[in-house]
Amino acid sequence: MTHFLDIDKTDPADLRGMIDQAAAMKQARAGRPKGAPDDEQPLKNRMVALIFEKPSTRTRVSFDVGTRQMGGQTMVLSGSEMQLGHGETIADTARVLSRYVDLIMIRTFEDDVLLEMAEHASVPVINGLTDRSHPCQIMADILTYEEHRGTIAGKKVTWCGDGNNVFASFAHAAGQFGFDLTFAGPETLDPEMIFVEEARAKGAKVEIMRDPARAVEGADLVVTDTWVSMHDSQSAKERRHNQLRPYQVNAELMSHAKPDALFMHCLPAHRGEEVTNEVMDGPQSVIFDEAENRLHAQKAVMRWCLGV
Ligand code: CP
Ligand code: NVA
């Protein structure tokens, strides 16, 4: 079964193939209305279940639209409205859904839920974000970087802020795509070292720094994310804000990166917190290309999962 669970669990040649196919599919439908079908209909007669146990705008809409553009159909399922949210096991849910649909995408809390779904499903399962990682996002980010600046291999990416699930997928990607990654944040919010060590073992240079200005020196890409993720306790909000305030991405911080450095944020953003309006709406920002590319990247991920 070809699941898309994490970037570090996927063969680098396959990852490269998905990025290249996404770019080609994007170009092939340039200028068409969003609801127009692609010339190729690889998901014709395929049914896709999109399960959300957390809120979503981009993931939900891009998977839905992408499936339809490729000729497939979707059903969007809220975890709380399924029996899954009321005591049915993940394994039984996976077995049952596999009798109805050809592909399952799930956004959930613990990574173990995703892994159990994949273990018991007889159709491919895609990770639409867990507390641990967000691989579809980083596939879109690689596509976005490369369409603006060429190959990401050998480039320097600096992450400012919380060592969270999106950072983890950047660390996975550093190992697989061969770029350098610097984390700038407070020690209390460091990423799990396993992500860093595994990327280093694959040859990526990964640094952990406390000084944000030094961390972005020479960066080709500066990235941040919310200071409080969906899985974080709201009671920790004020403490996190206090710890992370020095890592806000603002024009002054961007001035330490390369002059042509890009800025990315997976969105949703909290303007004025982790990033200023000046950077969000400035010339280095590619945040809306990044959001659009969720669509194109995930179309390639779905095709790869289904082998079509
Ligand atoms: N970036 C991202 O995954 O956005 P949503 O939470 O809106 O899906
Ligand atoms: N780190 C954020 C990403 C949202 C797309 C979260 O998990 O809430």
What's the arrangement of secondary structure elements?
Layout (H helix, E strand, L loop, with lengths): L11 H17 L18 E6 L5 H12 L3 E6 L11 H11 L2 E5 L3 H10 L4 E3 L7 H15 L6 E5 L4 H13 L2 E5 L8 H9 L4 E4 L2 H5 L4 E4 L12 H8 L6 H4 L7 E4 L11 H4 L6 H20 L2
Parallel strand pairs: 1-2, 1-3, 3-4, 5-6, 5-8, 6-7, 8-9
Helix pairs in contact: 1-5, 1-12, 2-12, 3-4, 5-6, 5-12, 6-7
The protein binds phosphoric acid mono(formamide)ester (CP) and norvaline.
The site of norvaline (NVA) has 9 residues, from α6.
Content-based structural category: alpha/beta
**Unreliable runs:** none
Largest sheet: 5 strands, parallel
Report strand order across the widest sheet. Answer: 7-6-5-8-9
Q: How big a fraction of the residues is strand? A: 5-15%
Count of individual beta strands = 9
The bound ligands are: phosphoric acid mono(formamide)ester, norvaline
Helix % is 40-55%
Sequence of secondary-structure elements: HEHEHEHEHEHEHEHEHHEHH
Provide a count of the helices: 12
Average pLDDT score = 98
- Over the alpha carbons, how many angstroms does the gyration radius reach? 19 Å
Shape: globular
Distance between the termini: 14 Å
